[in-house]
Specification:
The chain is mainly beta and about 260 residues long. The protein folds into two domains: about 5-225, Jelly Rolls; about 235-259, no CATH class. It has helices at about 210-220, 240-245, and strands at about 25-30, 40, 50, 60-65, 65-70, 80-85, 90-95, 105-110, 115-120, 125-130, 130-140, 150-155, 160-165, 165-170, 180-185, 195-205, 235, 250-255. The chain is globular, with a radius of gyration of 20 Å. It starts with about 25 loop residues before the first strand and ends with a strand.
Amino acid sequence: MSKPSWQDFAPHDESIAPELWDGVVGAWAPCLGPTGSRLHDHSRRANWGTLTNMDTATDWVVSDGQYALDFDGSNDYLPLSQTISLGLPGAISLWLQYTSASVFILCEAANTNNYIQMLGFSGQIAMGLTNVGSAQITGPVINDGKWHHVVAVWAAENDRRLYVDGTLRGTSTFSNATIFSVNGFCSRSSGGSLFFPGKLDDIKVHASAPDAGTVRQLYQLGRGGMYQRRRRSRIYIPQAGFQAAWARGSNVLLGFQQP
């Protein structure tokens, strides 16, 4: 299976797992290769991310054989050109690698009263509401320099879940607002404090609540896995069979036998 670059990314129905694109309202994949100071949105909503306070010559890096974006933890961040406004359910999924034990903001989803955050604390990953300790879900320590897949799900007003590497690591029934918006990544309030120190890849915002099976599949596909194309086979069939194969929606490249 081939992995296209951003220049020739195939339609979502050509994806190896097209069903995983259902509900995706933002998708950014540094692993598809450098695109300068603008990170392309592959959800087809043209919601570009802008590399801010970053050096395009050095912050596009290769890690484990694929490109990623490297954030310095000092002032690098990634605001979006449009705020993504969501009602519940919603989710954020991404791949990250870091070694710091400092507190940072990974993604901030703002609502009218609070900030719903994915954050780091003493090397752990967590999700919660600003200044509401009882609402926080704290996951495992992952500041080991390895790539980890993290999914934060807001399934309902009192149903939130944190997955790490395909496994559910915590839940919360703390009630919170039913509307939130996503306006950027790797800092508080698109340029405030608590910047993320590490590498980031394959970020998605979902207007849905992925279930455990979907999260597991996202993890198993790996970084950029949803951008892989389905394998196609080339077969030759008699001309009389063309219409029947077309009607079945056969995932093949059709040709004709020579008489």
